[in-house]
Write a structure and sequence with these properties.
By secondary structure, this protein is an all-alpha fold. It is built from four helices and no strands. It has one domain.
């Protein structure tokens, strides 16, 4: 028998993740994702610094790590949904 509760839980999480990303990801970085130069990563501008801080504080830069170690504590399924939403927004976790 299928577990439709798990599907609903993932869809609820997708909505949460999408809303959080929309509220916290600077639009100026959209589509740049992994194309950010090494210099930008080492000395980030204000928007990149704000994004790195926000995603780090949320624990979503390392989504499957335990919250005890600064991660998001997400299941592999939720981490996959999060990655899909990050890519949809044109963002990166790095």
């Amino acid at each position: 028998m299928a577990d439709f509760g798990a599907d609903l839980e993932l869809e609820d999480f997708r909505k949460e993740a999408r809303g959080w990303i929309e509220a916290n990801f600077p639009k100026s970085l959209a589509g740049r994702g992994n194309q950010l130069s090494m210099a930008e990563r080492q000395s980030p501008g204000a928007d990149l610094a704000a994004w790195k801080k926000a995603i780090g504080e949320k624990g979503w830069a390392t989504p499957t790590w335990s919250t005890q170690y600064g991660g998001g504590g997400l299941s592999p399924q939720k981490a996959r949904v999060l990655q899909q939403e990050i890519l949809r927004a044109g963002a990166s976790t790095r």
